[in-house]
Amino acid sequence: MPQPFPHITRRRALTGAAAGLVVFGLLLWWLLPLGEPAQSGRVTISTGARTGVYETYGKLLKKALARDIPRLDVTLTGSEGSWDNVERVATGKADFTIAAADAVAKYQYEDRPGALRLRGCARLYDDYMQLVVPRSSSVKSVADLRGKRVAVGGGRSGVRLIADKVLRAAGLDINRDVTPVGIGIDAMPKALKSQKIDAFFWSGGLPTEHVRELSEDFPVRLVELGSLVDKLHAQGESSRYYRAAVLPADAYPAAQQGKVVSTLAVANLLVTTDRTDPELTEAMTRTVIDSRDHIGAKVHAAQLVDLRTALYTDPLSLHEGARRYYRSVKP
User: Who's near 160: CB < 8 A, 6+ residues apart?
Assistant: First the structure.
């Protein structure tokens, strides 16, 4: 009489189990979503002065990263500006930052700690240098600032770096020919209105809210700076990153009254170092580019972030992770 069930040997049982695992694995592969594993860990982003453009951009970027990389813990730290930011990233106190190209180039040229480790992720938007005075002021050019009280930004800010060079281009020494006041954009408008200063320099995206709000509340005008670009370029390597530009008439309508203003501009870069994980850097770069419109709704200058130019991060070499991103989206 035949047996109702065949005899199952140990070997046959192991073979069946292995086949079952293969089938189960194929089923999981079919059902589960594909893609790179989600990034996790912690990063610190150094931003800028309180209520300034860098800080606002950083806060909006943090929200975008929470959406795109939810397992990533992002910490924002304030700073005095570009020079402070470059040093923090280069020395490992922060992982990412925004800094102007001239500050990066100066840090490299002076061979500061960690300079060789700096890498670029993206060219973001341009900062425009702005010299703001009361509309009734006698100051018509930078040279007219002699003997004036001039706000030039914090000692470690990008504003201070550019203001020093602009004053030199006009034949003035920042410490001898003017009275420098080391305050940021959060305090400059109030100081001008209360006559504690006669003018202030600011370098930022257009429009900068503090300048716009001041212009709508107090009669001011902007002094031309563009005529100094050639003299700036003659000052050395880091000064070649300034270019002639204009403040369009609609940047600050109340102050410009329908007129464009000649000035200078410098690119902002998203900066990291070769210590940063390539996969994380690729993901960060992707979020920065993909969030252009979202961030640009609040930081108008960010609308100018362009995939076609973002990879040009001179004077920095592209980080390998950023390079991977640009290759992945290349048409």
Answer: 81, 83, 152, 153, 154, 182
| C-alpha dist (Å) from residue 47 to 17, 157, 296 | 56, 11, 17
Euclidean distance between the first and the last CA atom of the chain, given in angstroms as a whole number: 72
Pick the closest to residue 85 from 49, 59, 42 (CA basis).
Answer: 49
Helices (H), 32-81: 53-68
Neighbours of 223 (CB within 10 A): 20
pLDDT tens track for 31-55: 444 444 457 789 999 998 877 788 9
Give tens-digit pLDDT for 160-194.
Answer: 999 999 999 999 999 999 999 999 999 999 999 99
If we measure between CA atoms, which residue out of 232, 233, 228, 225 comes closest to residue 199? 225
Residue 76 and residue 59 in contact, taking contact as beta carbons nearer than 8 Å: yes
Q: What is the pTM of this model?
A: 0.83
Residue 47 and residue 273: Cα distance in Å, rounded? Answer: 16
What's the Rg (C-alpha) of the chain? Answer: 26
Helix H or strand E segment including 233: helix 229-233
Q: Which two tokens stand for residue 111?
A: 């061979």
